[in-house]
Design brief:
globular
Length: 246
């Protein structure tokens, strides 16, 4: 899988990125030693921001209370927040989180893509702004719906009905916020969901395909090989580590 071949990631060196959480995102191509710091909890925030005022805050888990505290911090109110997790399948009761401005929600597999990196770079360079809270809620709702319903057939119509807007509008605001098409995001997440199931369960390839939202095992196997450059069975035999998100 190669999602980093169209971006000069050294461009991120100009910005200060502060990671908050237990998982150091050292695999992330836009986090380097000279442009980032990591703290395990926001309890250590005030000890850091005096000497390292961040241009971006990155959380590796969705903690509604922590994000709200950031938004209420007078020195960090306008600093964008990125919440990155491999899956948001178990997320719930996020009404207050959705009301927080200037917050991006993104699955890991999409966050490490070249498209999202370009989107994030434009945000840091102030070439774009995140959507207003109400519109951003639509995008976050779509992402959570995908995480919770990836085994289902997902259509623009079903997504539009879920968030209560027209089909064209869903696609338009999603691309504006995330820097990639809705269907590119769905494909990335399906691929990673399948990879997780192959590693963490003993399900058949056909069942992995079904639970990841693919119409049949043959199509899934072709798509998986094209994305990871190996067969689904090779993940279980340990031929190679195909993704950094395990």
């Amino acid at each position: 899988m190669n999602t980093t071949n169209t971006i000069d990631f050294q461009a991120f060196d100009k910005f200060r990125l502060l990671h908050v959480g237990g998982e150091v995102l050292r695999i992330n191509p836009w986090l380097h030693e000279n442009n980032s710091e990591s703290i395990s909890s926001i309890h250590f925030l005030d000890t850091v921001i005096g000497r390292f005022p961040p241009d971006l805050l990155i959380f590796d888990s969705l903690d509604e209370a922590d994000v709200k505290k950031i938004r209420n911090h007078k020195r960090l109110f306008f600093v964008p927040v990125l919440v990155v997790q491999r899956s948001f399948e178990t997320a719930k009761n996020l009404d207050e989180f959705f009301q927080c401005p200037n917050v991006l929600l993104c699955n890991s597999v999409a966050a490490f893509s070249a498209e999202f990196a370009q989107n994030l770079l434009r945000l840091l360079q102030k070439q774009k702004r995140l959507l207003p809270v109400k519109t951003g809620m639509i995008v976050k709702s779509v992402i959570l719906y995908l995480n919770k319903n990836i085994s289902k057939k997902i259509t623009r119509e079903s997504l539009a009905q879920t968030v209560g807007v027209c089909e064209d509008y869903v696609s338009r605001v999603f691309r504006a916020e995330m820097g990639m098409s809705l269907w590119r995001y769905v494909h990335l997440y399906r691929m990673d969901a399948a990879h997780r199931l192959l590693l963490q369960t003993g399900l058949s390839v056909a069942e992995v395909a079904r639970r990841s939202g693919f119409p049949d095992a043959a199509y899934f196997t072709r798509a998986f090989h094209e994305f990871y450059n190996l067969a689904p069975s090779a993940v279980r035999t340990g031929i190679t580590q195909t993704t950094p998100f395990t």
